[in-house]
Amino acid sequence: MNDLDLFSDSRFLTFLDQLSISVFIADREGEVIWNNKCSEDGIGIKREILKGQNVWDLEKKGVFTPSIIRLALENKKSVIRVQTVKNQKQQIATGNLIYGAEGQIELAVALGQPLDKAIKDIVQFQELEQLLQQYSTEIKKLRINHVQQKSPDSFIGKSKAMEYVMEYVNRIADVPATVLLTGETGVGKSVIARLIHTMSIRKNHPFISVNCGSIPESLLESELFGYEKGAFTGAKQSGKIGLVKAAEGGTLFLDEIGELPLNMQSKILQLLQDKTYLSIGSTTHQTANIRIIAATNRLLEHMIEERRFREDLYYRLSVFPLKVPALKERREDIDKMIYFFVDKFNEEYVKNCKISNQAVETMVQYDWPGNIRELENTIERLVVFSSEKPITPNELPASIRNKKELQSSLSLQLLETESLNELLDKVEKEFILKTMREQPTTRQAAKALGISQSTLIRRLQKYKE
């Protein structure tokens, strides 16, 4: 049954007759073929009288102004207008054309709804749309909170920096394009990559992580793309499935992408461009249904300038770039993470370690160059070696204590120093002498300071003069 046959089907006309909107059907000349009960009630004229009359004539008689069917036929397109019917009621009316098999106009259909009801429906629709938007926002928050509860060590806290990351992740999770994660070592790039996968439509498929810097260059191609049986000496007779194939339907995470050799970069570029790859020993390209997420702590832009990273690959990777903030950029989260790790290692080592507010304050001021990884390792050591008394600043590693004490000393010396050189000399002297008090030998002190032993000895001689 085609569209035109529907209007001669008694069951379809019965359906139209039960609608609460008015329906007018006319032929290509504008003669009324049929109208439903609602339209009859709306204009106050029996259907038997209207049938066969022309819409141009009905418009002149004031049955409806304007005639929506006339406008649709004259303009040869769908129209929508506010229309006044015979009883002076206004309605929203739409006129639509129905075409035959050869593209000619066969019928014109007008639909009408009282204006007050249409406005009410629009208001209700807008209210519903607003409510759905609120629900959508709440669902996003619940989704993010659920993920935070599953991975609390990386996502503790409500800093603006992490709120931005979580919102960004939520927006791109279901988008199939490539993501490039950047940031310092230890900030949680691999956790973010897994999070994107978990929140995506690929979550029920594999998440395969590859550290591009840990696989020898000679093995990298076979690890990624696999090989056919007998492809090279020492190859398995059955061949080998590569990690790209293992990630089919899911996500391939290329960690430390900056360590990828140039010859492999071209193969990854082909994988991104064409979604195809060649196994070693094969002449047939295979198709890959995967999403690629890459991560690096290197400045790829500088590597491009040094011709150590392909510019075209960089742009292919960074469709959605995301910088994961360092711990010092989300300092307001550090105290919460400290308490979390204390609880975590108390449970793991069956301890009841407490940490003083002063120690927490000192750690919050530290920059944590190793980020979350360094913080976690530090808390683990403190818990393992803790006594029954709360941990104090004196029990913290020297690097953390020195930062806090140096800041306090610097504030005082700024008030007492007349020149920058004098200030720098005082700060250097205090820092070196403090380190010497904490280290048993000049060799160990020099190592802690990051200078040579001979340089340290010269500085100490200078301070004795």
From TrEMBL:
Residues 155-384 form the Sigma-54 factor interaction domain. One of its GO terms (biological process) is regulation of DNA-templated transcription. It comes from the Bacteria. The lineage of its organism: Bacteria, Bacillati, Bacillota, Bacilli, Bacillales. Keywords: Aromatic hydrocarbons catabolism, ATP-binding, DNA-binding, Nucleotide-binding, Transcription, Transcription regulation. Residues 8-58 form the PAS domain. This is HTH-type transcriptional regulatory protein TyrR. The keyword Methyltransferase does not apply. InterPro entries: AAA+_ATPase (IPR003593), AAA_lid_NorR (IPR058031), Homeodomain-like_sf (IPR009057), HTH_TyrR (IPR030828), P-loop_NTPase (IPR027417), PAS (IPR000014), PAS-like_dom_sf (IPR035965), Sigma_54_int (IPR002078). SMART domains: AAA. The keyword Transcription applies. One of its GO terms (molecular function) is ATP binding. Signal peptide: none annotated.
